[in-house]
Amino acid sequence: MIQLTVNGKPRKADVDPDTPLLWALRDSLLLTGTKYSCGSGLCGACTVHVDGQPVRSCITPVSAVAGKKVTTIEAVDGSRVGKAVQEAWRKLDVVQCGYCQSGQIMSAVGLLSKNRRPSDADIDAAMAGNLCRCATYVRIRAAIHEAAKALA
Amino acid sequence: MTTIQNLSRRGFLQGTAGLTLGLALPGVSLAAKTGAAASFEPTPFLRIGADNTVTVISKHLEMGQGTYTGLATIVAEELDAAWAQVKVEGAPADAKRYNNLFFGGAQGTGGSTAMANSWGQMRQTGATARAMLVSAAAKRWKVPAAEITVAEGVLHHAASGRKATFGELAEAASLEAVPTSVTLKDPKDFRLIGKRAPRKDSAAKTDGSAQFTQDLHLPGMLVAVVAHPPRFGGKVKAFDASKAKAVKGVVDVVAVPAGVAVLARDTWSARKGRDALTVEWDDSAAFKLGSDEILARYRELAAQPGLVARSEGDTAGAFAGAAKVVSASYDFPYLAHAAMEPMNCVVQRTDDGLEVWNGEQFQTVDQATLAAMFGLPPEKVKIHMLYAGGSFGRRACTQSDYLREAASIVKASGTRAPVKLVWMREDDMKAGYYRPLFHHRIEAALDADGSIRAWRHRLVGQSIIAGSAFEPVMVKNGIDAVSVEGAANLPYAIPNLQVELHTPTDIKVPVLWWRSVGSTHTAYSTETFLDRLAAEAGQDPVAMRLKLLGKHPRHAAVLKLAADKAGWGTPLAAGKPGERRGRGVAVHESFHSFVAQVAEVTVAADGSVKVDRIVSAVDCGLAINPDNVRAQVEGSVGFALSAALHGEITLKDGVVEQGNFGDYAPIRINEMPKVEVHIVQSAENPTGIGEPGVPPVAPAVANAIAAATGKWLTRLPFQAAALKA
């Protein structure tokens, strides 16, 4: 049994310590907004925050986050930056299939939490780990600028 | 899938021309049979609840292309609903009510047909419901129906000051007779169609609540992860499950036709169990060629005449008397769809049939396939259509491959628990059903002034349709219509033209439609070859195309619009020292929509290509949701660039060499160009936009590369080595 703090609440996951955080979240805690896509840290669909930092949950053993604070897409609107990013995503209708967008949003929140006025180059650097097969990249970029404006 | 559309288009037009199409459901007006407040279901596509919710029932899969929003927009327009009160839900599998009007009697989503085939049907639905609500209000208020207005989900009688919401009138409306004919709006009165109607799925897809198949957790559900043979056609010879069964959470291990399946309580345990299996494979009947060998065979075939898909004039004679002959050969690799959500589904054996949860794209085919496996009538296979995390054609598998795999696991294990089949990324990428590998050869006979006297285009590649339920209608005289689409209907006025096809049947790599299907390769070869001929003749590529497009005004219009918006003919800003820049154009029709694109590229000294900007002009008939049209074209640009710059599935000794996004790399945000989308104002009926933005991208980029470097790339993906300064 692994003790976690997820979205501000203490949770227990009945999994082996080497189980990736992704599967503990999805299959034990039923927080399915965090997605499985590559399982190898290549696509970013599984991105969550651990103590405020974007982390690939598919290659992070659940034991590594014991005692740390995990935030998932389900609670992203709990922060001012998260709320702004989510609203920008909706305002610009960024999503298409939507499967990668939880991870995109978590990475974007990570970027804007450190850098309130990111340039296109900053966005490329921070977001290049997040694949979108629908290639919604034009709008992801625009929505990050939009959120930055709202936060200014 | 163009041909299916063509075959049944006539029926569709007959149905809607008089705008009196009888709605599919007999008995029609269905008050809810539950004890709760009655809802109003005037057609199978709409339910209005006493709670004032307007629910549009989508017969089409939402896989990102915006279908749910588009269908809801059409209904809400004619209904005069408030956009905020409209919700969308997926229809059950029931071809009698929910068939795609372009697929004959079959239910399914594909070929960019969702809006086009639903346009009349959804307008009719909205207008019918509106008329019944008005009629109910007229009776209740004892006023003439003609004096009642409807706006934003509220009925209003100005003279008496009476008002009622849809919800307040839902039950009464459900008792009204369904009108035999209704009047549709004059397009000039549209307030949602052609305007901005925000996506219906944005909220759920930005807070983690959207339900994809991968997210389902049903009571008692088991997860299956499967060990597949390394080669297509391989079989299980023997396996040892002892280590797999020792993994905590593993419940069962069963052999199935697709391999060996491990069933567990959760995904990670199933995966660990699968990885702990020892399987000995029987490759005696497996396909063992590599991509290079396949290509070598195709090149040999391309030297021989093929079956004739189109013939105009006297091509052989015209070549005999040519001043000059120009030729080129093109190689296109296998491509994986690689949707972000790997293929999956949930199948459960129930007392009287099967229950399936899936990003369901091909209801009628999948129902028939699964029913046959269990000896059931098709209607006993109940399918829930969930959001799909991308598909690009993969979920419309002609052989229902992953559904069949899941059902076989249910059958072999005998379980009554719901079984979620989960493919790991590597399983998905190696599973086949690729865009087929193709080889093309094009030759042109030129007159002394460079004008094109004859064009011979030979294509070699596997048939997508052969062996599927569509073969009887889509393969004619040995020609698979989707193998040659975009080539056989070349729009240019060339007096002598022949298109020939070779369809090898001994290549056993499973193939399937991949966003824009045949046009993924035909647009590339034809549009880059045409630029080559323009260069031979010393002509401007846009001017030359326009000269040859006299009978194709919609091609010409998008070409002119794209060229104009891109500043065609004006100098391109120079790059940094060592960089070469160029601009290129391409135009292509697919799925009855017309798209032209102008690409601007920078080629670095090391040969690497950066696509800076793509200007698109689109004619998809009336644009129901212009913002979604833009979104689809933006996404199409990225999808096409992924294939042009990186995408390649290769086989070695029959084994697929790629497995994940490290070696099969869709483009990332840093590779995404600026995209401009210009939409032609049109009063034509809507046509598709999910796919038509894809085909012109790669040839426009290749033509821009040629403008920058003088080099004509004939192999996809582009090879940087060929472009070194």
TrEMBL record, chain A:
Entry-linked Pfam families: Fer2, Fer2_2
One MF term in the entry's GO annotations: oxidoreductase activity
InterPro entries per record: 2Fe-2S-bd, 2Fe-2S-bd_dom_sf, 2Fe-2S_ferredoxin-like_sf, 2Fe-2S_ferredoxin-type, 2Fe2S_fd_BS, Beta-grasp_dom_sf, Diverse_Oxidoreductases
Keywords for this protein: 2Fe-2S, Iron, Iron-sulfur, Metal-binding, Oxidoreductase
2Fe-2S ferredoxin-type domain span: 1-76
The organism's place on the tree of life at top rank: Bacteria
SUPFAM superfamilies membership: 2Fe-2S ferredoxin-like, CO dehydrogenase ISP C-domain like
Entries under CDD domains matching the protein: fer2
Identification of the protein by name: (2Fe-2S)-binding protein
Organism the protein comes from: Zoogloea ramigera
Taxonomic classification: Bacteria, Pseudomonadati, Pseudomonadota, Betaproteobacteria, Rhodocyclales
UniProtKB/TrEMBL annotation, chain B:
PANTHER family for this protein: ALDEHYDE DEHYDROGENASE
Organism: Zoogloea ramigera
Keyword NAD in record: no
GO molecular function terms noted in the UniProt entry: oxidoreductase activity
Keywords: Signal
Signal peptide residue numbers: 1-31
SMART domains: Ald_Xan_dh_C
Keyword Signal belongs to the record: yes
Domain Aldehyde oxidase/xanthine dehydrogenase a/b hammerhead, chain residue ranges per copy: 207-285
Gene3D superfamilies named among the record's database cross-references: Aldehyde oxidase/xanthine dehydrogenase, a/b hammerhead, Aldehyde oxidase/xanthine dehydrogenase, molybdopterin binding domain
Protein name (database record): Exported oxidoreductase subunit
InterPro entries given in the database record: Ald_Oxase/Xan_DH_a/b, AldOxase/xan_DH_MoCoBD1, AldOxase/xan_DH_MoCoBD2, AldOxase/xan_DH_Mopterin-bd_sf, N-heterocyclic_Hydroxylase, OxRdtase_Mopterin-bd_su_IorB, TAT_signal
